[in-house]
Amino acid sequence: MATSELVTEGFTPTKWDTAQDKSRFAKQFVRFVKSDFSERLFSQAFYKRLSLSFGHIAHFNRHGFYQTFFSYVLDRNRDAHKFTLRNGHKDMKYLAAMANNAGLANPVGAAVKNYYALAEAAGRGTDYIPMLSDVVAELNGVSLDPGAKKQAAE
Description:
Elements: H1 19-34, H2 44-54, H3 62-75, H4 85-102, H5 107-121, H6 132-139, H7 146-153
Helix pairs in contact: 4-5
């Protein structure tokens, strides 16, 4: 997705954020991912918005959040966040049920739940949450493992 596609008109304002704020955050998120999760682009403001968006509590500050959620992707640290995909899927099913019972739309939660379901169906339920990045990469025919990239080049 090109960041030019993330125009303000494509976002719905809420009492918490304007459409412009949401567009700015989405563009920053895309730049961050395209930079291979560069810590240089992981500013305090971006960390605060990201942590509020996804409700992660396994951190106490920006540095802890970055280490928790990106050290597996970048350094293949299997112990970065020891919470299984199966448990994440279970939690997202609870969230979906609560949203449904309250009559609320939950498109982001549904997408996350579906990725966890895919991971479980692929036999990866005992992998940890950061390893979902590998599942998504594999679904797209790529590998995030630098060792695999090196072997493929040889």
